Amino acid sequence: xxxxxxKKLAEALKLSTSTISRAFRDxxxxxxxxxxxxxxxxxxLNYQPNHYASNLREQKSKTIAVIVPELAxxxxxxxxxxxxxxxxxxxxxxxxxxTDDDYQKEVTFINHLHNGRADGIIMSVxxxxxxxxxLNKFGSKRLPLVFFDRIYEDIDTPRVITNDYNSSFxxxxxxxxxxxxxxxxxxxxxxxxIGKTRMQGYLDALAKHQIPFExxxxxxxxxxxxxxxxxxKDALMQLKPDGVFTSVExxxxxxxxxxxxxxxxIPKDLKVISFSSLEIAPLLNPSLTxxxxxxxxxxxxxxxxLFTILDDHAxxxxxxxxxxxxxxxxxxxxxxxxxxSL
Length: 342
Prior knowledge:
Blueprint (H helix, E strand, L loop, with lengths): L5 H8 L3 H8 L7 H13 L6 H8 L4 E6 L5 H16 L3 E6 L4 H11 L6 E4 L21 E4 L10 E4 L1 H14 L5 E5 L5 H16 L9 E3 L4 H15 L3 E4 L2 H14 L8 E5 L13 E4 L2 H18 L8 E4 L2 E3 L13
Parallel strand pairs: 1-2, 1-3, 3-4, 4-5, 5-11, 6-7, 6-8, 8-9, 9-10
Antiparallel strand pairs: 10-12
Helix pairs in contact: 1-2, 5-11, 7-8, 9-10
């Protein structure tokens, strides 16, 4: 038989092409028996629907873009997994863009995506210290946009975040309850909204327990493992903290390596807690106490917000904030009196 197209399939079934199309799109307004009959005939005749052509007719790419600062962080990998699952369920594909925390890359990606490459964007932002008005310059033509994790507070758009202040407060309090009096807070960029929120939780926990704040115990780190190795070793030798709270998981790794090189025992000499979604945290030696964010759920919720806009034609600039709860998982890196060595 000659190659089968939708018109020939419709003729073979004595149905309209629109009915055939609705069956392959799983529309709810088509009879189940009719749908099964169409799919069976399509399989018999080896017919494959051309979704790409259909999407062009609808002026939809059936693609959403996901913009993240990095992929090395297990948190973002899990969030992307949640986004992809929801996208697949809705018949969409995802494109992943990595900014490497470079604001200009973010601007370039956003401009590129407004040429029809995607129907919507889910983004964890990179340039909080910069002017964000470029997002408003698109006006009503701006693609539906949802923030997650790191956000621009001055841009009105749906966002999914976690209870970072409360989590940081409880994490710091946990170290204090384990006997720590000199707690270093390690941060990559304390000017970011997420960094400021987490740092405020740390500061308020110290104040609650009447532990004097020492500014030099807030240690500015970088995105470079080599630089962090030097920074953290210097901090441990000069400041001599008895507890370390790291705001991102890569700084926990760097702390472990620094302690190994300096022969500092975790948790006997130094207790460590970190924001981390790392699945191997229980396998580290000692196992790492973590503030674990529901990363996959965050991705799913961000995708749900985006598809609400795409499917219901809601206001793409509608403010809508979803706040999810993180949880502290206590392990050996903060146990009092534990003598496990690296």
